[in-house]
Amino acid sequence: MAKTVLSVDDSSSIRQMVAFTLKSAGYDVIEAVDGQDGLNKAKMKTVDLVLTDQNMPVMDGLTLIRTLRAMPNYRAVPILMLTTESSDGMKMQGKAAGATGWLVKPFDPSKLLEVVKKVIG
After folding, report:
1. What is the pTM of this model?
2. What tens digit of pLDDT does each residue of 6-49 get?
């Protein structure tokens, strides 16, 4: 059975690129337009991996990560930040919130697949 990835980003072009890249490698992808939408979808179906942007309307990525980590079924699910933010301070905040890893946009599709494969197989 295919692993499911929740892709949370307010940029439709990024969501499309992520979905295309992951689907072509055999993953199922659920797309969300912001952190609140991502949280709602995560509550409906526990996924194998969450990929989230940081800067989004309604709920940002760090808030989404903290909220998911407080839920029993998301304590061990890998969560990767996929964002333009690359400062050490922001990465430290991400790690403190519970992020498993950090990818910087624009992303290289082969690098994305390499990291996804490493964390969920």
Report:
1. 0.96
2. 999 999 999 999 999 999 999 999 999 999 999 999 999 999 99
Dihedral pair phi/psi, residue 52, rounded to 5°? -135, 145
CA distance 4 to 49: 7
So what's the pLDDT on residue 121? Answer: 86
Structure tokens at 46: 């526990």
Rounded CA-CA distance 52/38 in Å is: 9
**What would the two tokens of residue 10 be?**
């307010």
Q: What is the pLDDT of residue 1?
A: 79
Residue type at 13 in one-letter notation: S
Residue 46 φ/ψ, nearest 5 degrees: -70, 125
DSSP string, the chain: ---EEEEE-S-HHHHHHHHHHHHHTT-EEEEESSHHHHHHHHHHS--SEEEE-SS-SSS-HHHHHHHHHTSGGGSSS-EEEEES---HHHHHHHHHHT-SEEEESSPPHHHHHHHHHHHH-
